[in-house]
Specification:
By secondary structure, the chain is of the alpha+beta class. It has a single domain, classed as 2-Layer Sandwich (Double Stranded RNA Binding Domain). Helices cover 36% and strands 16% of the residues. It has a three-stranded antiparallel beta sheet with strand order 3-4-5, covered by helices on one side. A two-stranded antiparallel ribbon has the order 1-2. Helix 1 crosses helix 2. The protein is elongated. It starts with a strand and ends in an 8-residue tail after the last helix. The relative contact order is 0.14.
Length: 140
């Protein structure tokens, strides 16, 4: 059972976990032991509330394929159990990210003081550049 929030919980039967052989270095062990974990989670067929499903499917994440299935591969550790926990934690984190709603930004105007300060610095900068010119040259 994977707890997402106080009232949202995923059952173990909804998450498909397969053990696969890890890639990369690992000595003789890498060819014998299936320590990496492949996690698959079907968004459409899950018991998640609709608003989670909609937001997950709208999410542009390389872990979500066009069929609406989240695929997570964990091969960080040489231990299959640790990799399984990491994969479940990543799935939990991904689902939690869509639950957070961003506050709508209210555009603000710059203060009068900041506007004056900005204009003064521009004037000062222009004056400094003007002083660098050769005397008597009338270049634009």
């Amino acid at each position: 059972m994977l707890k997402i929030s106080h009232n949202v919980v995923l059952e173990d039967k909804e998450i498909e976990i397969n053990a696969i052989r890890a890639q990369g270095a690992g000595g003789q062990n890498v060819n014998k032991v299936a320590s990496a974990v492949h996690l698959r989670f079907d968004i459409g067929a899950s018991s998640l509330p609709d608003f989670y499903k909609i937001r997950l499917l709208k999410l542009h994440d390389r872990r979500i394929n066009k069929d609406g299935i989240i695929v997570i591969k964990a091969q960080q550790y040489r231990n299959q159990e640790k990799n399984k926990l990491v994969a479940l934690a990543r799935l939990q984190e991904l689902i939690k990210t869509v639950a957070i709603t961003q506050k709508k930004r209210r555009p603000t105007r710059p203060t009068r003081g900041s506007q004056i300060k900005r204009m003064d610095s521009k004037t000062r900068r222009g004056r400094d550049k003007q002083l660098r010119k050769r005397p008597g040259s009338e270049e634009g």
